[in-house]
Specification:
The chain has 230 residues and is α+β, with helices and mostly antiparallel strands. It has a single domain, classed as minor pseudopilin epsh domain (minor pseudopilin epsh fold), CATH 3.55.40. It is 27% helix and 25% strand. It is built from three helices and ten strands. Strands 1, 2, 3, 4, 5 and 6 form a six-stranded antiparallel sheet that branches. Strands 7-8-9-10 form a four-stranded antiparallel sheet, covered by helices on one side.
Length: 230
Amino acid sequence: MNRKVLRKNNSQAGFSLIELLVVVGLIMVLSGIMLFYMAGHKKLYKPDDQALQLADILQEARQRALAQRETMRVEVNLTSNIVTLINENGSTTTTDDVVLKRFTLFSTTDVRVDTRPSQIAYGPPEPMPVPSAVYKPSVYTSTAGNNVCTIRFLSNGSAVDAGTTPTGAGYVQTGVSLYVWSPKKSAPTESEQARAITVIGATGSIRMWEFDAKLTQTNKWKDSRKSVAY
């Protein structure tokens, strides 16, 4: 009778050390695989995240310009790798400019915004001209000499360039196409994924685009978000 009880107790003694080690090993392997794929997906979504941040700050600039009847300036600064929204508070002086918002761009090894991918020879099919963003030395005091694309929204909502002086004099109404893309490791001038943001000069309307190489039409940019849906 005692032997039967002893055998029963032994069978219910729990997991052995080897079994526990096997379970822990499996957990570690599965966790490693999960982290690997999570890291890959995170990098995959970076162009989308960057494009959304840029579109949101541009849309905010336009809305503030219309609501506050002040010129709002957005600077995409390649030198500092920072995007800034600035309230110009009038056009007579630069000392009253107020920074409203800023964010840091992703590393250029992950996401580029400086030019259009080399394998894409055309921009999104907007009905009005939207030339590629131009990065050049800033005329504004706070970013003087930095390599900057400047987009300014006037009180009527239209978009203009930086102008020719620190107060924005001599500005020209213009459309802008900003390209946001992840470079290939084997060919850094070509993109794995490409997004674009267009700003129409006359109206200041903003639209997001996605490049889809699988499309059958000649222009493979497709509208990925409505222009006033922010």
